[in-house]
Amino acid sequence: MNATSGPHPTGALLLCRADPTAVRPLARLLGEQLLLAPAGEEWSVLVPEGKPWLHGGEPVEQVVTGWATALAVPAAGRPVVAFWWDRDRAGFTLAAGFRRTVGYTWLAGGTPVGEDEAMRTFAARLALDPVLDVQALEPLTEPDPDADAPGRLLGVVAVLGRAGLALPAGLHPGESADRLRSVALAQGAEQLEGAGWRDAVRAELDVVEGGPLGPYLRGPRARVLGGAQLAAGVPLLLWGIGRRSGGWAAAGALLVAHGAFGLVYDRLREG
Fold first, then answer.
1. If you average pLDDT over every residue of the chain, what do you get?
2. DSSP 142-169
């Protein structure tokens, strides 16, 4: 089950349970250099081109958890799984709507240090099979002298494959950020460019309007949802700025933007 030998490099992947068309607008708002590619039926993968965890003083886990929250919160029901790894640990974080993130961590040698309940919550929120998929995930929470941390993540990838995930060839957790970038580009990944807030949020609303949140974009429901997003986004934005956490600040900024635009959605659509 070993995926690599020697010290593990630092890297990350973001797995979004949505097609690239739905992921693109929000991903562009993160203000990061990212590559976007389809990853199976109704899945997309985002590959960081840069290494912000090397410059901002934040661990890779915290950086990508903020990104996942930013991508998942505005459109509930669009979960994002952030895979991350460094020389000492590896793990994943699942963000889904307004719910608290859930994750699991392994030491570099594959020793589990997460809670079993977190793995079951992970399966439930992704609507995985409560019997077969949970049974496949359970061994990942048990000691295994032949496992290492990247191998554990590959085990999670294998289970998600039953839910339609199919990572592009050669794109595996545990590789260096530079190699992931090279592989993604070779597979034809799209390089995302930044976008203005108004244009990107308008595009996001276009996507969401036809989905389960469509009824909440106009009238009283829109005001309730917009108010809730502002109430959650402002403190999160301030907390992210105070902690100098770009990922969490982006999550708060996206919530504030969606809340504000949601409150004036009818006017925006007429503009």
1. 80
2. S--TT--HHHHHHHHHHHHHTTTB-PPT
